[in-house]
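Reviewer 2 asked us to include a model.

Predict the structure of this chain.
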Amino acid sequence: MNSVILIGRLARDPELSYTPNTQSAVCRFTIAVDRPRRQGEDQGADFIRITVWGRQAETCDRYLSKGRQVAVMGRIQTGSYKNREGVTVYTTDVVADRVEFLGSGNGEGRQSGSYQGGSRDTFAGREPSYGGMTQDTGFSAPQDTFGGFDDMPDTFQAAEDDIPF
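Predicted model (structure tokens):
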């Protein structure tokens, strides 16, 4: 199984390009992922290259910027190439299947538009779509679904029932 989940902040703005033959969108960016801190050591970070394809790539380019926190789900892909000196350089990237925007970042993206910040990012009142899939994480219920605070009891009431575990 080849699966990875990362949470980190963009180390620089994403770069969008299109493949020459099929004109498929590809977005590349690097995220800084904190390492676990050990006693007496400074906090370290790993800088991991992320590749996103298709419509999700265009969304990432439009709304992400340096410093923005994201969650990335995907797979690890390795490769190699020869540099100008003829030395083989080995690469490790994460090819993202899903990118979730976390927090409010440092602004409202690189372009203005229907982006609306909040505890979960929404685009014109709907969850963002990634690769044709709409996110359904349970956080998108309308506010009035939960009712007002008038329905809440004034005090905590302890239950006398036994807990079955």
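The chain has one helix and ten strands. The chain has one domain: 4-136. We have added this to the supplementary material.
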